Amino acid sequence: MFINVFFLIAVFGQSAVQLQAELDKGVSEDALRAILAAGKSGDKNFIPLLKKLAKQPRSREELNSVSSCAQIALAKLGQEEYLKAIIADVDSGNIFFQDVAIQKLAKVGGRSAFRVFFELLDDNKYRAEVPTAEEIQRAKQMGAVIRKGDEILEPRSFLVMRLLANIVDDPPVIRDIAPNENSILLWKNWFENHKYLIE
User: Fold this and answer.
1) Whole-angstrom distance, CA of residue 160 vs CA of residue 62
2) 3-class secondary-structure state, position 153
3) DSSP assignment of 79-100, as one string?
4) Helix-, strand-, coil-residue percentages of the chain, each rounded to 5
5) What pTM was estimated for this model as a whole?
6) Closest Cα partner for 173 from 124, 121, 95?
7) Left (φ > 0), alpha (ψ -120 to 50) or beta: where does 149 sit?
8) Could you give the C-alpha distances from 69 to 12, 54, 156, in angstroms and in order?
9) How far apart are CA 39 and CA 76, in angstroms?
10) C-alpha angle 70/72/78, rounded to 5°?
11) Per-residue pLDDT of the chain (199 residues; tens, 9 = 90+)
């Protein structure tokens, strides 16, 4: 049976030097898992390397990138500015940034994530892409047509409920069953019984 040495280092203890050496070989799923493991380790020695990785160019619409994983790891290590950036994207005007940020928060976990998730249970509007002021201005200048709003995403509460069902030990719903409006009340009652997560 093949066991990836990099994965073992990630799980059983790695150093920032080992992490950097593996990243120098190229980005793989194991590399991304190792970055996340650095955040779970609680080892503050990873912070300088993770900050460097978080600065890499990225798309805010991409969850599985070096910079996104580094941002998650830094937030887990208590670096407030990275957690605040993720939370800011939850309320971004871009619906795709919102979804990625909510998924990042699920990976960060902790009281801040649960507070945001609890608040988002009230957001049950379907979301459509809206052009930015810059896009509108550019289209006017070029005489172009903007095609936004073709993509409709589920309410943020539905995404939150799906993620919560997979990260808490005792969800009030059956995992892998699509949430609906009735699920919101079940989750609010669940939070009422688990106030320690949001207080």
Assistant:
1) 18
2) strand
3) -HHHHHHHHHHHT-S-HHHHHH
4) 65, 0, 35
5) 0.82
6) 121
7) left
8) 19, 8, 21
9) 5
10) 105
11) 233 434 434 443 567 777 776 677 667 888 898 899 999 999 998 999 899 999 987 667 799 999 999 999 999 999 999 999 999 999 998 898 999 999 999 999 999 999 999 999 999 998 887 777 777 787 778 777 666 656 778 999 999 999 999 999 999 999 889 999 999 999 999 999 999 999 9
Provide the residue type at 84 as one letter. K
Specify whether the CB–CB gap between 56 and 66 falls below 8 A. Answer: yes
Q: Between 181-193 and 110-120, two packed helices, what is the crossing angle to 10 degrees? A: 140
CA gap 196, 154 in Å, rounded: 28
For residues 10 and 37, the answer to whether their CB atoms sit within 8 Å is yes
Tokens 């699509």, located at residue = 178
Compute the C-alpha angle 185/188/193, nearest 5°. Answer: 130
Q: How far apart, in whole angstroms, are the C-alpha atoms of residue 168 and residue 160?
A: 12
